[in-house]
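retry 2 of 3: previous attempt timed out while embedding inosinic acid. Reduced batch size to 1 and resubmitted. Inputs unchanged:
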Amino acid sequence: MSSRKADLILGVQWGDEGKGRVVDAYAADYDVVARFGGGDNAGHTIVVGSRKLALRIVPSGVLREGCRLFIGGGTVVSLGGLTAELDMLAGIGVDVSRIKISDRAHLVLPYHPALDRLAERARGGDPLGTTGRGIGPAYADKAARLGITFGDLREPEQLTEKIRAAFRWHALRFDQSEAAAETLAIAEVKAHAQRILPHVVDGVEFIHGALESAQRVLIEGAQGTLLDVGYGTYPFVTSSHTIAGGACIGLGLGPTQIGRVIGVAKAYATRVGSGPFPSELHDETGERLRERGAEFGTVTGRPRRCGWFDAVGARYATRVDGLTSAVVTKLDVLSGLERVGLVSAYRLDGRPATFSDAAHPRLETVVEWFEGWSDDVSGVRRIGDLPAAAQRYLAAIEAALAVPLEAVSLGPERASLARA
Ligand code: IMP
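retry 2 succeeded.
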């Protein structure tokens, strides 16, 4: 059967690349925007005029009235969190009947954040710095075949039994203070099931039905390539597959059904939580990037670690994601720096090293320097109209990613985008 291909936008660093604003801008040309993984550990911010929207799980196309929004089967979602987000959106006049969730998506239940805390405590002095939302434990339950799906909400009797079975396993790790977790989980499901059920659909029918009826589907990644559970800086990663292949798994698509793969890269690098970050800046420049870029977590409020753009990580992402083009975000944050650095290579004991060496204690970075620019670039709408020094820096990012740069975002506003 002939069917359209879906396009994919995903982050190529450690998350927080500004995918939300890029997806919002691109969604004008699509009929469906679909999330494929992660949960409410993600925070996507969209600014339209005076309205600033912080989304956790609903795809970033939500402010485009013509778009249907789909939360795919590869996600893990808290019922209370989803209900709150639907209420918030309904409260600002969004028609939330456009939002659907796959029957294959898994529930994050109240005992999952509790398990996240226990796992962090068990790691002692070397915590992962998770968002504490129970994402890892929910994915672990899925793989252990103890998870509860959104499809399960249709059978309340069996659902209670399934939660009891999962809890019998988890209870072995809980102390008295968490003994009520099973009751809480059952209560949460009872409280929200009727509200959420009208949004639950057969996820495979939904996505393939859309593509087969020639609808334009845009897939939105969550977190970033370098946080992938298999190919990121393990174990300092999230628990889902954030790379392009994760879109196939998370939506039930084959690789031949993906069209463009657009990588979103911030003009510098940030990371929240623990883990290797070879281009990190521990000085005033890092501080300045944090302040000017408002680099504080959308979900947790934690200050993000900041550093130079890492071309080694970028090349790695192009490979594992199979990018076809790229968008650079937050270039405006670099305006006013006398010179801008870019980590062009890694070295280990005098020899060239690869991204898989990122955590090595003796790793050294090679920094290439670029002349800065001080012009206000926020009104620029064509990449060719940017200051010459900014264009030289962008050319180095484009060379690292080895795919054409199709847009550069120059501010949080929907319109602040320069196209090629
Ligand atoms: P978890 O996803 O809550 O298990 O956290 C695992 C790691 O991924 C931690 O370092 C988090 O800070 C990081 N992380 C999870 N979601 C995001 C995100 O949306 N942006 C940036 N980092 C994230």
